[in-house]
Design brief:
Elements: H1 13-30, E1 54-61, E2 66-69, E3 74-76, H2 77-80, E4 86-91, H3 98-113, E5 121-126, H4 134-141, E6 149-152, H5 155-164, E7 171-175, E8 182-185, E9 190-193, E10 198-203, H6 209-223
Parallel strand pairs: 4-5, 5-6
Antiparallel strand pairs: 1-10, 2-3, 2-6, 4-9, 7-8, 9-10
């Protein structure tokens, strides 16, 4: 990828251990009505080709949008992640269920699957610019892996990036019962792009660690 992105530190073993614990603990949380988008994670059925991720019927590409990394550097999505398969996810750090489950499952599965962050970019884009400061994003992603790329920007830019992927923008759902401001409805799927920036598959909320262990090696082998 281009030099506009700040270098990322190596993943620490204790972070992977924490991610495993988060998956185990948060799957139960997601089964309750924590928000209007909370559903039970059931895992994905393998397709005829063996993939767990769902193929996209319409052609989509990495959005042409410029966001900021947590160091304040500009990151043009369609340029910065060219040449490497990328998993792109839109969420927010106060999310009670979808975001931590996705991120923990991916981060913990990578070590088991033998997939390196040098061969696959994992990108988290905040849909909550009012609360998600760069410091808060860094602190949040450190729970899963410091090598996950955290991005943020004006809400209009984030909404435009979502629209380019035919995804809805974030919606305020109402007060968070945990007393942490508002819950925000947002797209619940992780989108997978090949090294040429073509969106090929999506993993909806419900994808388990075992699904990622099955798909991650194929992403690197077939999409690079």
């Amino acid at each position: 990828m281009s030099s506009t992105r700040s270098p990322r530190s190596p993943q620490r073993p204790q972070v992977r251990t924490l991610a495993l614990l988060l998956v185990a603990g948060l799957l139960a949380v997601a089964c309750g009505p924590a928000s209007a988008t909370a559903i039970a994670a059931q895992g994905l059925e393998p397709g005829p080709d063996g993939w767990r991720g769902i193929p996209l019927e319409r052609q989509r590409t990495m959005p042409e949008a410029t966001l900021l990394d947590t160091q304040g550097g500009e990151v043009a999505l369609h340029e910065a992640f060219a040449g490497t398969p990328t998993l792109l996810f839109f969420g927010y750090t106060s999310c009670p269920d979808i975001c931590p489950i996705h991120l923990a499952a991916i981060a913990s599965a990578m070590g088991t699957a033998g997939v390196s962050f040098d061969d696959l970019d994992v990108v988290f884009v905040s849909v909550d610019p009012d609360r998600d400061t760069p410091e808060r994003i860094d602190e949040y992603l450190a729970n899963f892996s410091r090598r996950i790329v955290g991005l943020h920007g004006d809400l209009t830019v984030v909404e435009d990036a979502l629209a380019q992927l035919d995804l809805p923008g974030p919606v305020v759902e109402g007060p968070d019962p945990r007393g942490e401001g508002d819950l925000i409805g947002h797209p619940a799927q992780v989108i997978g792009f090949d090294a040429d920036g073509q969106a090929l598959r999506t993993w909806p909320f419900g994808a388990r660690r075992s699904d990622w262990i099955a798909d991650l090696p194929r992403i690197v082998e077939e999409w690079s």
